[in-house]
Amino acid sequence: MFVGNLSFSSTSDDVKGLLSEAGEVSEVVIPTDRATGRPRGFAFVEFAAPEGAEAAIEKFDGREFDGRRLRVNAAEERQPRRSPSFSAGPSSSFNQDAPSGRISRPKGSRRGLRGKKRSL
Predict the structure, then answer these.
(1) What is the DSSP string of 27-94?
(2) Tens of pLDDT along 29-85?
(3) Whole-number Å distance between alpha carbons of 13 and 64
(4) CATH superfamily, region 2-73
(5) Which of 1, 37, 43, 82 measures 20 to 30 Å from 91, CA to CA?
(6) What is the torsional sign of CA 101, 33, 4, 13?
(7) In angstroms, how far is CA 61 from the centroid of its own chain?
(8) Which stretch of DSSP H or E encloses residue 112?
(9) Distance separating alpha carbons of residues 23 and 57, to the nearest angstrom
(10) Tell me: the pLDDT tens digits for 89-106?
């Protein structure tokens, strides 16, 4: 289950204590920001029984907690991320032999590149 719009000072114990009113909470995960280590303002909660999750959605969606209005709903499966596709054709100056995930550009100044184009 997804619980959004949490206060950044909310802990997993706070969320577990609140949502345990609806049913037995088996796990609470609050993701943190990689750069700062601060909570990101949402949590994923797992209930022991599906009835607890349904009751929590009805009871807590829109309810105020720590000065913020909660958003509580069923968590959706995240779509797998696709790497960006570059349409680098055979005439492209990108190196096709570069390690996957990296694109290397030719070394040298742009001035030299312009001169080569003029000579063609």
Answers:
(1) EEE--B-TTT--B-SEEEEEESSHHHHHHHHHHHTT-EETTEE-EEEPPPPPPPP-PPP----TT-SS
(2) 999 999 999 999 999 999 999 999 999 999 999 999 999 999 999 988 877 877 666
(3) 17
(4) RRM (RNA recognition motif) domain (3.30.70.330)
(5) 82
(6) positive
(7) 21
(8) helix 110-119
(9) 11
(10) 555 444 455 555 566 666
DSSP 99: P
Give phi and psi for 42, each to the nearest 5.
-150, 165
Burial code (b: 16+ CB inside 10 Å, e: under 16) for 37-76 equals eebebbbebebeeeebbebbbeebeeeebeeeebebeeee
Lookup result for tokens 């105020």 = 64
Q: Fill in the amino acid letter for 30.
A: I
Which tokens go with 26? 């088996």
Residue type at 62? G
